[in-house]
């Protein structure tokens, strides 16, 4: 891990897991979203945000707006940004109607709001975001590389081009979203991606980076043996 330049963020909304990852220095930052908050059973968004920033005062945390119209999103962004200096406000690049939210992104960035622009899938969207944000204002452009791959399309050409576009303006970082496996961390690092968000099951595998694969055959068979014993199954 010490040889990697890419920052690893944990993707989730379980406050206890977030605290553990922060205290054990397993990751560099955190991202949340409405789906993850629902899965974690969050009932009070404001209390969750307050608790998270109190427990994690100096690592990046992204909180997403819930509204679908720009006026309400702006009001929500003003609330979220005030929870701490380490907070990034997540704004989707479009709403549910497919309407571009670039005007809101431009407006908030001009006011020095740290943004994490999410649900990005095309290089055209990346270019629009980079053009819209204010030079020097910390901004993440979250490209959902994993979901692109889920359609059978190789996301690497897009991600490589997105690195160049994002790095053309000071303060903008490219974030590899929807990580599917540990190898994605290596891929993101190799192309110069700034950040990758990983779900909990991938974060747990981070210590495996650099491990000698010659050891894996024995470990795999040991795993089989343990499961055989637990199952109580037999052939003879």
UniProtKB/TrEMBL annotation:
GO MF, one annotated term: transaldolase activity
InterPro entries: Aldolase_TIM (IPR013785), TAL/FSA (IPR001585), Transald_staph-type (IPR011861), TSA/FSA_arc/bac (IPR033919)
GO biological process, one term: carbohydrate metabolic process
Pfam families assigned to the protein according to its UniProt record, in alphabetical order: TAL_FSA (PF00923)
Domain of life: Bacteria
Cytoplasm recorded as keyword: no
Keywords: Schiff base, Transferase
EC number(s) on file: 2.2.1.2
Name under which the protein is recorded: Transaldolase
């Amino acid at each position: 891990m010490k040889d990697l330049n890419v920052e690893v963020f944990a993707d989730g909304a379980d406050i206890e897991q977030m605290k553990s990852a922060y205290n054990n220095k397993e990751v560099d930052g955190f991202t949340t979203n409405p789906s993850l908050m629902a899965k974690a059973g969050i009932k009070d968004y404001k209390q969750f945000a307050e608790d998270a920033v109190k427990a994690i005062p100096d690592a990046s945390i992204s909180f997403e707006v819930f509204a679908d119209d720009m006026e309400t999103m702006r009001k929500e962004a003003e609330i979220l940004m005030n929870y701490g200096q380490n907070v990034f406000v997540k704004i989707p690049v479009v709403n549910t109607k497919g309407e571009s939210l670039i005007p809101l992104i431009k407006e908030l960035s001009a006011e020095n709001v740290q943004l994490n622009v999410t649900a990005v899938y095309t290089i055209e969207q990346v270019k629009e975001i980079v053009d819209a944000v204010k030079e020097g204002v910390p901004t993440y452009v979250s490209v959902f590389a994993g979901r692109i791959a889920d359609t059978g399309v190789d996301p690497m050409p897009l991600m490589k081009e997105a690195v160049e576009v994002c790095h053309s303006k000071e303060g903008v970082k490219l974030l590899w979203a929807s990580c599917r496996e540990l190898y994605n961390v290596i891929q993101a690092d190799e192309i110069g991606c700034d950040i990758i968000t990983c779900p909990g099951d991938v974060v747990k595998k981070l210590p495996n980076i650099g491990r000698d694969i010659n050891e894996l055959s024995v470990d795999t068979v040991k795993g089989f043996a343990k499961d055989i014993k637990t199952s109580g199954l037999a052939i003879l």
